[in-house]
Each structure stands twice: as structure tokens, then as C-alpha cells.
Sequence to fold (429 residues):
Amino acid sequence: MRQTFRLIATGLLAGAMPASGAGAQVVADTVHLPDTGRISVERLAGVRQLIQSYVDQGRIAGAVVQIQQDGDVVFSTAVGWRDRERRDPMRQDSIFRIASQTKALTSVAVMMLLEEGKLLLADPVGKYLPEWSSTTVAVARPTGGYDVVPAKRPITIRDLLTHTAGLSYGGGPAEKAWRDAGFMGWYWADRDEPVSAAVARMAALPMSAQPGEQFVYGYNTDVLGVLVEKLSGKTLDAFLAERLIQPLGMKDTAFYAPREKADRIAVVYSADGTGITRAGTPGTWRDGGFVGQGHYVDGPRKAFSGGAGLLSTAADYSRFLEMIRRGGELGGRRYLSRKSVDLMVSNNLVDATLSPGRGFGLGFSLRTDLGKAGELGSVGEFGWGGAYHSTYWVDPRERLTVVYLAQLLPAGDLDDHGKLRSLIYQALP
Fold:
């Protein structure tokens, strides 16, 4: 028989709030003991304490973490402030900009089209998006500047899924040309232009590397989002809503939030070397990315970024990850075949490399060697994260999914991700 415990951490939320954010309290923790008894509830208590310590030090405003084992929620907590200045506490249903965590959903959408016979991973992108039929590459000169040379081969769909198309976020030798064309980082929600139009213009710019030769993180999944639109005949927001978000019960996941949910969106903060400050409204460009509160409520609602556009909650995203962990099925409904998921979470890098002990599948990074990676985890674990300092991973061996959501950009030297990982794995027997 399963036992269920609800732990409520009490404390005063009213009154004067120190500038550092000290005094913010945990809203609630829900801990379930699954029948396996594999994880220690007592030892997981350190997760909450860790996040609270960063809130008290003024290094983060707040965060939400949800941990599942065997599909059961074993730990879920909201710590600190959704809006520190308004003394509005973080809640477990707070909504976050998940940025690059969007890539996983778009990658699943591509695999759905593969299963329907609408594409092959080896297909050139130009077969479906003609502007991409012939691309170029910027090659840096030793003395400065760069030359533009033809790509050695066409960019394929698999190149985009593995970030080996040579397509960056506007960096590389031709950075000025990308910036002059209006591509400065990953932010799209403020654009009064469909992503498809932007991606068509992007194809004429020189890439940062030859197809297949290097792992280059960038607009790859935005191109895939346009591909989904072209082959499905639907906008990306409609396709994801109909095929993934709604059937999975991800009730708070969307590219733009309705006005009635605006007060649930977590505020973005920025590390400034001495603490954190509230980012501007709507925000500014900094270090190649968008820093600010954004346009997720009042934006033009035309740009649906497959690489970085979604809002979500810890509970919603955990449901999506649980479907992947279960091999493409959840709640009696199959979203992907088991074999498609197997391919997605296998290392698909051929000539390119990511980092020691890590590879990359079709939308996820992978743990390929525990010792070379040098941190706690399991071989076969997969995950990624988002620009606003969120992270997630799935550990099939331990039957775990972990979602950690925060809104901090830039995050500076914050080391909470690594410590969170250590505290979770030390709770396993």
C-alpha cells in the first residue's frame, strides 16, 4: 500500500523583505513514497534546503523542482519568490519561460512526421524548404575576416536534430552579417513576423561550420519547427497543442500565455556580480540573447519558435518527460513508437563531439561515459536545459525524471545545477 505524506513548511511571508530575498519560505512540498522504496524521502530534504540557501543569499529569486520515480512524484517544491519586489511567493504552478526546453517537443514532432512517412532523417532540408537547397559556410582567415565557401553537402534533417548543421545563434566568423540581418540570439516572441519568413532569410547567410563536422548550437530547431509547419499544414503552436500538449494534459504550456495567467509567470532576474536585479520590461538584448520580461502575454502572437518559444510548468514538463521515459506512451495513449524514442536517446554524433562523456541524440544530450563526465548520474541519461537557468534530465536506469525551473539570465557563476544533481543521487540507496 502506498503511503502519502504532505509536508507544509510554515513561516511569515508578510512584512519587510530583505533586499537579498532572505526570509522567503517554501510554499509546500509533496512527497510520495513509491512501492519500490528506492529513494530516501529524508535525504531528499536537502534539495529544498539547497534552493532556500540560494534564495536567502540573494543569488536566485526562486525556483520550482519536481522529481519523479516510476511516474510517481517523489518530491515537488516551490521555493522563494515568483516576484520578489511584490513579495509574491513562488508556487508549484508558476509558469516559466522554458526557452531551449522547447527543442525536445519540436524534435518529437519531427519524429511523429517520420513515423507518418512524411520525411526521412537523411532528407536534405532543401527538399521541403527550397531556400535551404544550397548553403554556404564562413571560413575565418588567419589574418582576420572570412571567406565564404559552398557547403560540401546539403544540410539534412538529422543534421538539424543533432545540431551539426553548422547553424549557430548568429555567432562565428560571419557574426556581423547575422546581426545586420536581425538575428541576435534565440528570442522570437516579440517578432511581428512568422518564424518561417525569418528562417527563409536565414538560409542565405553563411553558416559557422560545414554540415556534419561540428556540434554548433543554434537555430537548428527553429528550422525544424518551420519544417513541421510545412509538412503538417498547421502552425507549430497548433500542431504541438493537438498532438502533444493537450492530450498529455499540459494545461499551462503554450507559446503565449492568456492574460488571466499573466500573474503566474515568474519574473526574470539577472545576476550582476553582487546579487540579482529585476530584468527590464519588456527587456533588452545582451550577450547575444534576450534579457527581460518578454512579450509572452502582449506579444504579436505570430512567431512560434520551435527552438526556444514555449512557456510551461514543472508539472507539465514532467508529464512530457515521463512519456519519453516510458518509450513514447503515457496514460494509455501512444505518441511515438518505442523504436523512435530509442533512436532519439542514442548518440547520433558521427564526426562531431559535444564534451567528455556526453553525446547528443535527436533533441537531447546524452550521458555516454560516467567517469569522463565527472559527475553523478547514469550512462544512458538524457536531458538539456534553457537559457533562463532551467534544466531537466531523465535517468532510465533509476527510472527518474527531474525538472528544475528558474528565471535567471545571466546566471553568473551559480552552481545550483551541479549541487542539485548531487543531492538527488545521494538519496538513492
Notes: The two ends are 21 Å apart (CA to CA). The longest strand covers residues 72-83. The first helix runs from residue 41 to 56.
